[in-house]
Amino acid sequence: MSETYAKSDLLGGHLRRKPFYLDRIYAIQEELKNNLIIADSGLTVYTQGRMPLSSGCLCCKEGTWLCIFVGHKCNLSCYYCPQLGEDRPDYPRAFSSSWMDDIKTYVDLLGDTAIKGVSYTGGEPFLFLDKILPVAQFIMENKSSVYQWIYTNGLLVTEDRMKELRDCGISEIRFHLAASDFSETVISIMKKASKIFRRVTTENPTIKKVRDYFVENDGLVVMEDCGVSQVNLAELYFRTPKNNPGEETYLYNSYFGSAESPIYGRFWTYDIIRKAIEIKSSLTLNDCSNDTKLLQGLKRSMNPVLEHIHRG
């Protein structure tokens, strides 16, 4: 661990403590502030793109997002993935048969208030469409205002499957493009997705190959050409040393626990954001950092329904 806890920020030591180097990140934000939306006491930061921040991200930030883990099986094995990497039907958050009616009940009773957004993740959700489609259909028919979206690495996605999901009320698809090493096959699927879904987003861990794709190459332009509207830049956190192959890390310590994260990830995030500003990109770039995860945790803790579900 190259950094130690240093000082508390203005929210107070009981919420988070940070190493001194994060002051350099906040200085970059100050430098770029005319091109950024900075809200929620600095816990939310994103660029001003042609479209507003996704409704899914807004649900996350206000504590009304129900994230459904449909299963942990995946067709890839990314070293930085925080999930279990294997299918565990007994895992509390897994989407087992007994959970299907529970999810329907929660949304039917509390949609529009405690639950305004539902997402489907994993594992690779396209391995579990038989579980997703009936619930998405139920939500669309009974609480159509609840925003639904799905995550994927893209390799199992087909045009027909995307149309099935759209017809069941899913409005947004989010591609983890780095998982396939920016596969041209996945990029071609993303182009089709932009003609099917209301929004196409990319989810990107802030690792070096992501930074290089967007900064050293034409990744941002490619995303615009695909019809992508938002690029999420997610700060990594490691559950165990085995999926931390030598990165220099720091501990982000908050009221909700500690996250061990690579130091350079936040700087690479702002390399990408700076590039987007320089080329006048129309994309919305979202700094999905540990700060943002703190906001998510705080707001979720204030929502007794989601606390009940996640603790169940």
Q: What features would you highlight for this structure?
A:
single chain; TIM Barrel; disordered N terminus; 37% helix; 11 helices; seven-stranded parallel beta sheet; globular; 20% strand; four-stranded antiparallel beta sheet; alpha/beta; 312 residues
What does this structure look like?
The structure is a single chain. The strands form 3 sheets. Strands 5-6-7-8-9-10-13 form a 7-stranded parallel β-sheet. The two termini are 34 Å apart. Helix 3 (97-110) packs parallel to helix 4 (129-142) and helix 7 (208-215) runs parallel beside helix 9 (264-278). It is globular. The protein is built from 11 helices and 13 strands. It has 312 residues and is α/β, with parallel strands linked by helices. The longest helix is centred in the C-terminal third of the chain and has 15 residues, at 264-278. It has one domain: Alpha-Beta Barrel (TIM Barrel), CATH 3.20.20.
Nutshell version of this structure?
The protein is an alpha/beta fold. 37% of the residues lie in helices and 20% in strands.
Distance between the termini: 34 Å
Number of domains: 1
Strand order of the largest sheet: 5-6-7-8-9-10-13
> What's the pLDDT, averaged over the residues?
87
CATH homologous superfamily identity: Aldolase class I
Q: Quick one: how many beta strands?
A: 13
| CATH-defined architecture | Alpha-Beta Barrel
